[in-house]
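Hi there, hope your week has been kind to you so far. Do you reckon you could talk me through the fold, stretch by stretch? Thanks so much in advance, here it is.
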Amino acid sequence: MSAEAANPGAHSRRRGRPRIDLRRIGRAALLGPTGRDRLPDAISHVVDAHRAHHPDADLAQLHKAYVLAESSHRGQFRKSGEPYITHPLAVTLILAELGAETTTLTASLLHDTVEDTEVTLDQVKAEFGAEVAYLVDGVTKLEKVDYGAAAEPETFRKMLVATGNDVRVMSIKLADRLHNMRTLGVMRPEKQARIAKVTRDVLIPLAERLGVQALKTELEDLVFAILHPEEYERTRVLIAENATACNALAAIAEDFRTVLRDAGITAEVLIRPRHFVSVHRVCLKRSELRSTDFGRLLVLVTDDADCYAVLGELHTCFTPVISEFKDFIAAPKFNLYQSLHTAVAGPDGAVAEVLIRTHQMHRVAEAGVVALGNPYVPTDSAEPLDGERADPTRPGWLSRLLEWQQSTPDPDTFWTSLRADLAQDKEITVFRADGRALGLPAGATCVDAAYAQYGEEAHACIGARVNGRLATLSTQLNDGDTVHVLLAQDASSGPSPDWLDHARTTAARIAISSWLESHPEGASAQAAAPRRPTPRAADRPATANAVVDRPDATVRLAGCCTPVPPDSVTGFAVRGGAVTVHRVECAAVARMESLGRAPVAVRWGDAAECRVTLVAESFGRPRLLADLTEVIAGEGAAIVSATVEPPSQQRVRHTYTLQLPDAAGLPALMRAMRDVPGVYDVSRTQHPASTA
């Protein structure tokens, strides 16, 4: 496949700017740098594109970078036959057209010098500063001689770590891959396919997450042409046969201009032809394409308010397709994208999809983080929290990726996990108990939220509250949910193998798998069948160590609240001359007083033994009941009776009536029961006991 055939995105290029002539640049490069007073002709394209976005840019650094790149690459040629300097020039031009600032362009010109020439990183640092050297080092490949088959995944790991500190590293890599894909036709078919697959699985998702749509769409078309040549050819023919399809959109666009002009709204209405992959997706969605399906209308305005004004006018004067409306201005995508999406039908029934955005939104939509320039330039605003620099990509997907990659020393595991992580292309925002936001991929569960918030400490997770209500760890989270993760106090507890079925994030799956591999005995124990405790009948009547000032009165401890020393208690006389003792906060006390029953003064005697009923609420898991009874026995308490209610939504309620040798041990007993993995609450019963 020729380089031209591998460039299906050429039809949608920006008009008015011809594609650069690499051979002419090559000839100019061979002549070497010109006088100091002007830049070489070979870099004039870059200069023009750069000045279009940055009119006041200092070009001295670009001049110096070009001289070093040209001299160091002199005598080197690409497989296509052009002088090698044409590649860094083309990569730099791509970034210049997207609006990259001078430092990024300088590093782009030098991005292959350390890898392919005698220039060292120290030389780059001495000549251009630490910032440029960091960017160049970030995109420099690791040697196959040192890493063998692991060179490619380890190179990507290195680039991702560097991107965590400066997103411009990945911007240069994406532009580098785009130019290589444009000229991939000189490679063997099998190598084309291998590079295209990596581009599809890793670089296109990264371009999407960084919001660089201009690079992403062309990369998609180039990959489409290589990996699916038959579908690509059918799509190409379809687009060629409908070359005049945009005439229908042009008529609707003119109607838009008239409506907006009459409404006094200053707006620019443009036709954006769909790229190849987009047309192919529409073909799969619809059995027959409409003439307006080959493009969309783009309306550009000055400020946010005008976006909604345009939307109102279009929905008033045309028939809106309500199901197509989306507001990404009020709720931007996680990759910084903002726009209003809608579709309207004209008088003749033709339906046109419409994008409405400001000029700044359009710049960010096309160039993503590249359009933001250097995100680390000091501003007058307050310093970021925790001393971190204000990187718009770090709060979400990139932070998660950087966290889990440290736990995967094996290159194959990293490579597989990276592709799986990048395949999750939608994101939700949930809120922690402290109000801070947490970015997670769509479909994430409470397990993912736990590991995203606590890392390895989440091994002790026993449940969660979602929007204030108890929820199982498998509960799938929605955008805007508030999640309060519940952790056991026992740091030695660990995850269940079942958690792997609920984890969606790579970080959670790696952490869980690592724990299970290092604790095989814990995993097998949790996988064992649950053992139910055998209720044990009381071998003696309940004894009360409460004392009342009534001779010969029988004292009974109420089963509804099971008072124990040193609870504040009161009593009421019942039939037969007995006195029943209740905790003062028991609901039965209020009922007795409302009926006019006179309370009896009660105090605790010297006897320490007592009986109490406890309720343990937990999430169901294997061996939970066995663990609870073992803990109770370990605290020296005897089980008088035990009941377990049928599980409800994976939650189980256990009621234990216990005989304690000393009431002072009750707080320690309750703490020990709460520490059992899976138990999220232990309380004294406030209801009539099922057994007494």
In short: Residues 189-209 form the longest helix (21 residues). Confidence is low (pLDDT under 50) at residues 1-39, 376-395, 527-543, 688-692.
